Amino acid sequence: xxxxxxxxxxxYAALGVAHExxxxxxxxxxxxxxLDVSMKGAQDWLTVADGAVEALIRERLAELFPQDSILxxxxxxxxxxxxxxxxxxxxxxxxxxxxxxxxxxxxFLRRGEPEIGIILAPAxxxxxxxxxxxxxxxxxxxxxxxxxxxxxxxxxxxxWSARVPAGRYLSLIESGISAGASIKRMGxxxxxxxxxxxxxxxxxxxxxxxxxxxxxxILIAREAGAACSDYFSGDAINDGNPVLCCAPPLASALGxxxxxxx
Length: 262
Ligand code: IPD
What we know:
It is built from eight helices and 14 strands. By secondary structure, it is α+β, with helices and mostly antiparallel strands. The strands form three sheets. It has a seven-stranded mixed sheet, with helices on both faces. It binds D-MYO-inositol-1-phosphate. D-MYO-inositol-1-phosphate binds at residues 73, 87, 90-92, 159-161, 187-189, 206, 209, 213.
């Protein structure tokens, strides 16, 4: 299949930048006893690594693609038709606790839709990649969602943040368990959705999540065959949205449990 040369250039450049960023982040992770850690809010962690990794990614992308815009978790940014969306460390609470479930996430969006998704989890030795229309890959091998059709056999991850009142999260968990699902939470929305893409989870739901957490992961899940809610509708880039990604046969039952249209 022929793809625009600009997509190829952006993809390979971003992959190189993501590897450099992941090496930097891993260095901080391995020396985290010396890491400056602060809180942006309740259970909302910030380490010096987040800022340093975002600064590196921004500097490289701005140098390579000066005409593109960049939006990042720590330093914000403005929207345009050619937009990089970056989360320097998704799963910062895990990172700060020494849990390897964290990742660097870089997405490229054209007119609000993801075209490139790259997620590196260096402490797990995992690289997830996708380009629109070309499938999804883990460490270079094709990945595929599960074919699970029965919620009473399904493993569903439910992401949580303090942005959503506890009661709404608890009723999501209660509905999921009542429908027979096994519920888990592993602390990185990006990797949670990648686990749907590999079939190690059958679904991922979060009642509100920001676009830097899921920009790359949703493309990876879609390209692996997952059913995904229309996350990028409305003003998701600025305000976030709910997200649901799952094995296609579970979509209607899980959508009903979560109260998310899919
Ligand atoms: C958070 C993680 C978490 C999700 C939250 C995110 P951060 O991102 O992805 O799993 O539930 O909604 O804010 O703060 O670690 O980049």
